[in-house]
Design a protein that fits this description.
Keywords: Signal. It comes from Massilia norwichensis. This is DUF1329 domain-containing protein. InterPro entries: DUF1329 (IPR010752). By secondary structure, this protein is an alpha+beta fold. The chain has a single domain, classed as Lipoprotein localisation LolA/LolB/LppX (outer membrane lipoprotein receptor (LolB), chain A), CATH 2.50.20. Helices cover about 15% and strands about 30% of the residues. The chain is built from eight helices and 18 strands. A hairpin with a 4-residue loop joins strand 15 and strand 16. The N and C termini lie far apart (about 55 Å).
């Protein structure tokens, strides 16, 4: 073994020791879940001035008029008015509560505004998810390749010790077992023109969360997606399939090209490769702020802080698509912001690894573990993209989870919104268990034709 290989081998060994040592928490810490901590690991108490209330169990009762499988645009806090609004003129007053991306957008566009409403900790999950999370706290760990071991059916690391554990909490955040929605996506050009890139039906499942499943039955498969396009016309009939595994080397991706009438395996369905699910506008690891494998970056858990983030944004699903999509950004009237505690995680690309965005910072809501905001810097050190995801209350699930997500490109002045459901009759429909064949390559050609 030469010197270079010896150094690499030693580094891998030390990483493995660190990953194993920073894993499962002791019984005393785990006992805090459901007491001083919520069942998913957030601080149960509110903050000192009361602007963040204590968690009281979240929203678990469906609103009046809600129909299963229908729309989710019923705002549970519709009667409330903004406490204050932030613009470029007064942003310095709130700078410590804003992400770099939010501040950049306020400076760049006079039309961008952040309306801040009273905070409601609506997040909830089924009791069995809480119980599994408690089990995970004392059993789950990361192996030498940063793969979760000993976790199933709940947040894997509710009391995280490092950035990788926190990011796995995001990737494995509770959003249901099986669901479907009609989906549109829009790229908005620098001139402010919206261009539809996707119009299709998405079926998704999380085998990691199958209530009657086991780690063995899931076989590491934690998230499945099948999207069949009905439009726009140039993309009608196309389809994409993704199967993500805890071991990223076992991830699978396939695309069906209508013109060729053939299903092809995607050679590199990860990282900064453009994903066909967004017509190549967004990379694989920008979906829902961050998705996919972690091994391209070193992850640092910066800590927890109070931040203004989009939250309880059911109103964003109302009206028409163009009620939400403005020329330069989402319509501020449609987006509700609240003060919440978030975990801040920084990512820096590993030595010897290439990525178009070598530095990133992500903000994970403490109650759901969902990444709601994220910023990325390019190779020149310029703040390049700011990503966002709009959390929506779903008391029938129960959950508060993301639906519409996207990014603002601060350099090109284009932006992108995915999973725009405003004009759809069905918005995040809970489904019975899909047959596994639904997420097989053969299903693309049969479903796309």
């Amino acid at each position: 073994m030469n010197i270079k290989r010896a150094i690499v081998a030693a580094g891998i060994g030390l990483a493995g020791i660190h990953g194993m040592a920073a894993a499962a928490v002791g019984a005393e810490e785990a006992a805090k879940l459901g007491k001083t901590l919520t069942p998913l690991g957030a601080e149960k108490a509110g903050n000192k001035d009361g602007s963040i209330p204590a968690w009281d169990g979240g929203l678990t009762k469906a609103p009046a008029g809600f129909k299963a499988g229908g729309r989710r645009d019923q705002d549970p806090y519709a009667g409330e008015k903004p406490l204050y609004s932030i613009t470029a003129r007064n942003m310095e007053q709130y700078a410590d509560k804003l992400s770099d991306g939010a501040k950049a957008m306020l400076k760049k566009h006079a039309s961008y505004r952040i309306d801040v409403y009273p905070t409601h900790r609506s997040a909830a999950a089924p009791q069995w998810v809480y119980e599994n999370t408690r089990k995970n706290a004392g059993a789950a760990k990361l192996n030498e390749r940063q793969i979760p071991v000993g976790a199933y059916g709940g947040i894997p690391f509710p009391i995280p010790k490092d950035g990788a554990e926190a990011m796995w909490n995001h990737l494995l955040s509770w959003r249901g077992e099986n669901w479907q929605f009609d989906n549109r996506a829009y790229l908005v050009t620098a001139a402010g023109k919206p261009v539809m890139t996707v119009d299709g039906i998405a079926d998704q499942s999380m085998p990691y969360y199958f209530k009657d499943g086991t780690p063995e039955s899931a076989n590491g498969n934690y998230w499945n997606l099948r999207l069949v396009n009905a439009g726009p016309p140039i993309r009608a009939g196309e389809a994409i399939l993704g199967r993500l595994n805890l071991d990223s080397e076992r991830d699978l991706g396939y695309a069906y090209l209508a013109g060729q009438r053939r299903t092809r395996k995607l050679p590199n369905a990860c990282c900064d490769t453009p994903t066909p699910a967004t017509a190549g506008v967004m990379s694989f690891d920008e979906v829902s702020v961050f998705a996919g494998r972690l091994d391209r970056f070193d992850w640092k858990l910066v800590g927890k802080k109070e931040m203004l983030i989009p939250y309880n944004t059911n109103r964003s699903l109302g009206g028409k698509d163009m009620d939400l999509i403005n020329a330069k950004h989402l319509n501020p009237d449609m987006v509700r912001w609240e003060l919440h505690r978030v975990w801040v995680v920084e990512a820096n690309v590993k030595p010897g690894v290439r990525h178009v965005a070598p530095k990133g910072r992500y903000y994970l809501d403490e109650d759901t573990w969902m990444a709601v905001l994220g910023d990325r810097w390019d190779a020149k050190g310029q703040l390049w993209k700011t990503m966002w995801q709009l959390p929506v209350t779903m008391p029938d699930l129960p959950a508060t989870t993301g639906v519409t997500f996207g990014f603002y490109d601060l350099l090109s002045d284009t932006w992108f919104a995915n999973q725009v459901l405003n004009e759809k009759a069905s918005q995040y429909k809970l489904m019975p268990r899909y047959p596994d064949a639904t997420f097989s390559p053969d299903s693309l050609s049969s479903g796309a034709r």
